[in-house]
Amino acid sequence: MGDKPASSLKSFIRTLTGIHEDEVNAAFLSFTFIFLLMFAYNILKPVRDALAPEWSDVELAYLWTINFVCAAIAVSIYGAVVSRLKLRNAIPGVYAFFAASFVLFYIVAQNNDTAGWVNKAFYVWISVFSLFHVSVFWSLMSDLFSQKQAPRLFAFIASGASIGTLAGSAVTLVVAKMLGTLNLMLVAASILVLIVPLITILRSTISEGTGIDDGQKPISSNPFAGFSRLVRNPYLLGIALFIFLYTFIGSFVYFELKNLMSVNDRDTNTAIWAGINLTVNSISIFTAMFVTSRFAQRFGVGKTLAIVPLLVAVGLLAVFVSPILLVTIGAWVTLKAGNYAITRPGREMLYTRVDREDRFKTKQVIDIVVYRGGDVVSSWAFAYLTASLGLGMGPIALLGAVVAIIWAYVGLRLGNTYDRDSQAALSSDGEGQTT
Fold first, then answer.
1. How far, in Å, CA of 131 to CA of 371, rounded?
2. In a domain, 425, yes or no
3. Which CATH number characterizes residue 326's domain?
4. Is residue 3 in a domain?
5. pTM score, whole prediction
6. Closest Cα to residue 161, out of 30, 49, 274, 61?
7. pLDDT for 208
8. CB-CB contact of 147 with 297 (8 Å)
9. Is residue 46 part of a domain?
10. Given a cut of 70, is residue 103 above it in pLDDT?
C-alpha cells in the first residue's frame, strides 16, 4: 500500500515533465542540489548588486577586469585540483571551500575601517562564485546523465535554480534588515555545507538506479588542459562564442540598469534587485519545468538556443524606442528568465556530447574565464561608448539588438550540430538493435 502513492506520484511527474520513472529520484536530488546552490547565492546577490550604483562606469569596468583575472586564476587552481584528486572528493571540496570563504569575509568585515576594500573584494568574490558553483554543478550533471537523457531532464533540473533563486531573493527581501548583511554570509555558508553529503547521495542513487559512471575515470594531470583543448575544438569554440555574446548583451543591459538606478539609495536598489529576481524566477519556473524539455524534444536544441536571443533583440529594440527604467527592466527580465528557463539548460545539453576532460576542465574555462572575459570587453566597451563617445541608452540598446541576432544565429548552428549528432547516435542504436 505504501508504494502505491509513490508510484502514482512518479507517474504524474513523468506525464507532466517526460522524466522516466527510474530517473525521478536522481532528477529530484539534482533539482535539490541546484536549488540549494542558488538559494545560497541569491541570499547574497542583491547585496552585491546594490553596491554597483555607488561606483562609476570606469570603476566598475576595473572591478570586472579584476573579476576576469581572479576567474582565470581560480580556473587554473581548479584544474590542478581535479587533476590530482578524485572527482568524488574534488567537487564537494569546491563547495566546502566557498562556504569557508564566506565565513572569512564575515570575520574580516567586522572591522569597519576596511569597509571600502572589503565591499569591492566581496563584489569580485561573489562574481567568481556566481559562475563557479553553477559551472561545476553542470559539469557533474553532464557527466552523470547521457546525451539522450539531457533534453528530457536538464530543463526540469534547471527549474530548481529558478526556485532557489526565488527563495533566496524572498529571504533576502524579508530578513536582510532584520539579520544584517554580514549575517547573511553565514546563512549562505551554512546552506553550502548541506550540499557536501547530498553529492554522495546523488552519485549513489544514479549508480544504483541507472548504472551510470561512478566518477572514478581519471582526468589528465595537466591543470591547463582546458585552455589548450578549447582553442583546438571548433565545437567548444562555438559554445565559448555563444556565452561571450550572452555576457556582452547582459553587461550592456546591466550597466544601463545601474545608471538608471544611480539616483536611488542602496536600500531602494536592493529591494528593486530582489524584486527583479523574484519576477525573473516566477516567470522561469513554469517554463523550465513543463515547457523547455518538450520544446527541445519537439523542435530540437538549435531552435531552443535561438529563441531567447531573438526575444531579447525585440526587448532591446523596445529600449531603443523608450529608454526608461521600466522598459530596461523588461529587457533584463526577458534575458534572465529566458536564460534560466531555456538557454541555460539548452547549452548545458551541449556538454553531454564532449568527453570528461572537457566537462571538468574546458567547461570551466568557457563558463568562467570566457564569461568574465566577455564582461571585461563589454564593460570597457560600454564605458567607452558612454564616457568617450557620449552615446545614450537608445543607440547602445540598438547595438545590443544587433548582437542578440548574431547570438541567435550562433545558438542555432550549435544546437543543430548537437541535434544531428543525437539523431546519428539514435540511428546507430536502432541499427544495432535490428541486427
1. 8
2. no
3. 1.20.1250.20
4. no
5. 0.74
6. 30
7. 45
8. no
9. yes
10. yes
